[in-house]
């Protein structure tokens, strides 16, 4: 159905052509309005039938509501009177109210379907005035939101006060703080490598990526399996996954393969994060790092598959609940911003004073603590006619990823059991060795 709506929008001729076609333009717009209502109505009817609830309006009713919006907008345009559209909206609103009262009497149920009907009417009106792409986007977004009810309920059920406060803080940072940050460099070289806005933008980007992983954990839940926890946890912090699973190995001897798989998958996600960060900040650098970084992720992912396909563990089946704290709060956000700024300025300073050797040394040291900051700084410094060449920046990123992987391997060696070490550490050695070799050859 989504494809049908998109298809109608795609094949609808532009207005400068439709002006010569007369009624065909009107029929095209009304067709989109009708399809919009049908799309939303099908979702509502399916959802209501699934729970056996009374149906206020189904696919046909929603299709007529969308068509009413389109007709109202067209008539208002023809008669050059907004009153025609307002009257149509009031009539449809009255019908919606009567339908609600007739179905519930006491008004005890929610108003989601009624609100969806109003949005459908307005989307149909957008189609009626020729805003076909916007109308289709509204209808698809509405349908997706309605279909996401089970996931949003699961998400809200797992929220606590700290999660709500952190989400509000993240929204404030994105909407209110970031736009007003100064865009001018902090000072003369090497301080011209950073500006408050640039630092804030990278903070929002990396916290948003981590926040996405955290939301997925909240929605899906770690009880779906330790391996899934490794994947989702890798979006938040692969180091946190390594620490958690290594510590658990001491008390969960029957789950060692599952724990090793989770660690390896989190490491693979870390390599994937690096590629995403480079691709977003500096697409031109991506072709330089995709092979060495990609092979590092492939090594860990392949070894994870090898470990998981061997003899199954005995025990609780991997249904333990792993906990991850919300990745956003003002403290960590400020710390990451400062770290990113220091790495950005420090990398340029080392490049000015020591050349490539200084950049590589800084990457190794920075990678011990965090691979995101050095990745973003290298991608930024090599953008366009930047301070660094793509070759130098890509090598530095590979060194940082190798340093970070070795540190996590050291955590496994120090904290976990000998069996888990044997399962995990070969992947760390292979990933570091192959990525460094490819970095030197390319």
Description:
With 442 residues, the chain is mainly alpha-helical. It has two domains: 146 residues, no CATH class; 281 residues, no CATH class. The protein has 19 helices and no strands. The protein is globular, with a radius of gyration of 27 Å. About 4% of the residues have low confidence.
Quickly give the structural class: mainly alpha
Total number of beta strands: 0
Alpha-carbon Rg, integer: 27 Å
Spatial gap, N to C terminus: 47 Å
List segments where confidence is low: pLDDT < 50 over at least 5 consecutive residues: 11-21, 314-321
Which percent range fits the helix content?
over 70%
Oligomerization state of this entry? single chain
Mean pLDDT reading = 78
Order of helices and strands: HHHHHHHHHHHHHHHHHHH
Number of helices: 19
Name the beta content range.
under 5%
Count of separate structural domains: 2
Main β-sheet, in a few words? none
**Shape category:** globular
List keywords for this structure.
442 residues; globular; mainly alpha
């Amino acid at each position: 159905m989504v494809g049908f709506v998109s298809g109608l929008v795609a094949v609808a001729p532009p207005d400068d052509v439709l002006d010569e076609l007369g009624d065909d333009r009107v029929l095209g717009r009304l067709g989109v309005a009708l399809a919009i209502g049908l799309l939303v109505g099908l979702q509502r009817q399916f959802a209501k039938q699934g729970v056996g609830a009374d149906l206020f309006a189904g696919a046909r009713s929603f299709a007529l509501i969308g068509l009413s919006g389109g007709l109202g907008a067209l008539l208002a345009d023809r008669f050059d009177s907004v009153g025609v559209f307002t009257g149509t909206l009031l009539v449809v609103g009255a019908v919606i109210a009567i339908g609600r009262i007739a179905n519930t009497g006491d008004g005890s149920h929610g108003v989601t379907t009624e609100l969806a009907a109003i949005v459908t009417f307005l989307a149909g009106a957008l189609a009626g005035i020729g805003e076909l792409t916007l109308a289709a986007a509204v209808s698809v977004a509405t349908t997706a939101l309605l279909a996401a009810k089970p996931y949003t309920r699961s998400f809200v059920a797992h929220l606590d006060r700290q999660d709500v406060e952190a989400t509000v803080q993240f929204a404030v940072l994105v909407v209110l703080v970031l736009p007003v940050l100064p865009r001018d460099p902090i000072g003369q070289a090497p301080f011209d490598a950073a500006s408050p806005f640039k630092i804030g933008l990278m903070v929002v980007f990396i916290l948003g990526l981590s926040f996405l992983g955290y939301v997925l954990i909240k929605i899906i839940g770690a009880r779906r399996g330790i391996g899934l926890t490794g994947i989702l946890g890798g979006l938040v912090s692969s180091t946190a996954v390594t620490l958690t699973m290594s510590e658990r190995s001491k008390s969960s001897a029957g789950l060692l393969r599952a724990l090793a798989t989770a660690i390896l998958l989190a490491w693979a996600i870390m390599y994937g994060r690096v590629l995403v960060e480079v691709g977003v900040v500096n697409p031109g650098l991506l072709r330089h790092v995709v092979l060495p970084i990609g092979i590092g992720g492939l090594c860990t992912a392949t070894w994870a598959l090898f470990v998981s396909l061997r003899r199954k563990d005995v025990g609780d089946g991997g249904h333990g609940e792993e906990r991850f704290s919300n990745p956003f709060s003002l403290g960590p956000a400020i710390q990451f911003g400062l770290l990113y700024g220091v790495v950005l300025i420090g990398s340029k300073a080392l490049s000015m004073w020591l050349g490539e050797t200084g950049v590589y040394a800084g990457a190794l040291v920075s990678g011990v603590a965090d691979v995101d900051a050095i990745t973003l700084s290298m991608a930024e410094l090599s953008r366009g006619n930047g301070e660094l060449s793509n070759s130098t920046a890509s090598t530095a990123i590979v060194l940082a990823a190798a340093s970070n992987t070795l540190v996590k391997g050291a955590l496994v060696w120090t904290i976990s059991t000998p069996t888990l070490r044997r399962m995990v550490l070969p992947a760390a050695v292979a990933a570091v060795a192959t990525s460094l070799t490819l970095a030197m050859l390319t």
